[in-house]
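stage 2 :: seqdesign
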């Protein structure tokens, strides 16, 4: 009985507190400050240690589990490429580290509009290359990300493939943003988090002079052949539902080992509520299992 009430309460919290922040009427600098405060409710596990570092000249946050790490997850945070940071995603990184047994590394990649495309994928690639230069095999590295970070993880994998670089062992996407043209946005009866007008503006700021149909901005338009096993999780109450289902269709078309999970009546990146909401914790456990299964033995 408690969980349905908690779910309803969290949905109302997202709708009344978070969604109003993500508005073009709110100055971007204020959006960034407010989102930092909102993410304080996503509390990491106590037994995960955090420290700041620098990899490939990109600041990162390392989340290390209590036991010796069995692998490394390069986690790319969401925020429409214009807000968010490693600090805002401390909670989700911590829970993923604990459940997977991996060290989770969250880059503070540069944000638009100060740094439009290709700054974000450039930074993500720099961190990945730095990990490999430290002697970590690609087979022990997994990519993961939420929202814009989910799309960015796919872009990074395509970049590496096109350069004939070693690919990570798997990709995990939470509510990935894969079509910045917004041609086929889903229209749920209830959308507790996102405004289509906000994501449209974020896409414009990030894309700059580059067409939004470019697969390195909108990976749903790309060729995903050769990418590692892919897990996609999405809520039914979000405008990015079609981004996820279309991504799954394209990935399967291109021969990628793909799993799509749609969580009914949940919202954008609901995994931030891990340890509070049972279904969020269960989804995170599924993601952790996906990552572990594909790491090099």
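stage 2 :: out
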């Amino acid at each position: 009985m408690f969980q349905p009430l908690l779910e309803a309460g969290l949905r109302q919290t997202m709708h009344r507190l978070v969604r109003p922040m993500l508005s073009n009427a709110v100055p971007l600098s204020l959006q960034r400050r407010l989102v930092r405060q909102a993410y304080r409710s996503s509390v990491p596990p106590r037994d995960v240690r955090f420290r700041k570092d620098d990899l490939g000249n990109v600041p990162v946050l390392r989340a290390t589990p209590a036991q010796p790490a069995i692998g490394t997850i390069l986690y790319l945070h969401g925020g429409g490429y214009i807000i968010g940071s490693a600090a805002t995603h401390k909670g989700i990184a911590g829970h993923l580290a604990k459940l997977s047994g991996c060290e989770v590394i969250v880059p503070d990649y540069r944000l638009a509009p100060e740094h439009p495309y290709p700054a974000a994928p450039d930074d993500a690639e720099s961190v990945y290359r730095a990990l490999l230069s430290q002697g970590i095999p690609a087979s022990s590295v997994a990519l993961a990300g939420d929202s814009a970070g989910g799309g960015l993880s796919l872009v990074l994998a395509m970049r590496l493939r096109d350069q004939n670089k070693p690919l990570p062992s798997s990709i995990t996407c939470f509510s990935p943003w894969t079509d910045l043209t917004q041609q086929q946005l889903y229209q749920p009866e209830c959308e507790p988090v996102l405004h289509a007008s906000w994501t449209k503006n974020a896409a414009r700021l990030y894309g700059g002079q580059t067409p939004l149909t470019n697969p390195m901005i909108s990976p749903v338009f790309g060729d995903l052949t050769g990418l590692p096993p892919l897990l996609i999780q999405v809520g039914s109450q979000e405008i990015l539902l079609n981004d996820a289902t279309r991504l799954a269709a394209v990935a399967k078309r291109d021969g990628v080992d793909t799993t799509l999970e749609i969580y009914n009546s949940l919202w954008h990146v609901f995994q931030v509520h891990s340890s509070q909401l049972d279904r969020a914790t269960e989804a995170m456990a599924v993601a952790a299992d996906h990552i572990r299964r594909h790491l090099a033995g």
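stage 3 :: structure notes
- The beta strands are 49-55, 58-64, 72-76, 103-107, 141-146, 171-174, 230-235, 258-263.
- Residues 2-294 form a domain with the Rossmann fold fold (CATH 3.40.50.1820).
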